[in-house]
Predict the structure.
Amino acid sequence: MRVALLAYPGVAALDVTGPAEVFAAAARLTGGGYELVLLGTKPGPIPTVSSMALHPAGVISEDLGRMDTLLIAGSPGIPPVIKDAEVLEWTRREAPRCRRHGAICTGAFVLGAAGLLDGKRATTHWRFTRALAHTHPRVTVEHDSLFVRDGSTYTSAGVSSGIDLALALVEEDFGRKLALSVARELVVFLKRPGGQSQFSHQLAAQFSDLPAIQGLQHWVIDHPREDHSVERLARRVHMSPRNFARVFRRETGETPAGFVEAVRVEAARRLLESTELPIQTVADRVGFSNTNGLRRAFLRQHGTGPAEYRHSVKGAPSSASQKSRGRKPGT
């Protein structure tokens, strides 16, 4: 299967290299299941925002033959090529000829400018979802998804989510087992579901402008197992509990207890994805007193329980998680 990645001057290198490494690893593991082609908009090296140059195998003005999959990379801002008539005409003509087409990050604006997102659901980097919705009102923008599939059109959120999208495409083509093998080969988290939130609480911690609160958020993230009662957290920032709770909510938009729960659930999610630890051990390591508490919090944050979540990202449940669920029906 021929996978084409379209890049242009000012492209984000990881938007190209991340998905490219996924398909390259899959090609190695399948003995040639994919042929990867990097395309440019003009002849010559393609400068990226990180000062690297990419060397395309072809340009859009050439006869490129049949492509199975076309993905358009993004840039740190709205891609300047949305004003390039040649690029838009080529995209408008060639994308529908592919079995599937899509965009990484702000590459969605190129698909949008070519009219290929009209009447569809789509996403992009969280900083630009409102701009995408405003610029293309016929598009249903999903503001908080890692990637979105609507028919044969795929869009993904910022930067590293292009890897998640590429893994999902590999799974579509060759099954879950190969997708997980590719993830292990690249030493990345085993495949995240497309509907998972773009935001981690590590990122959310940056949204407080008050240094004391931001520092406290980072401390909570680094120590999820600690006692994070309002009284203890207030003492760390030298405030009264009442004033602390008021300031924290003003700065972050959520209560201290809500933030702590979200951080613990996220820490649990990472352990569920990357280890075979029993659910009880996971709960203990991230600060929940029992598996029922973890399950209730996980349901609030993700709409599914921890055992079900592990199964969704890792395939058949491990013997450890099966034993855990056997001991505790609530887990």
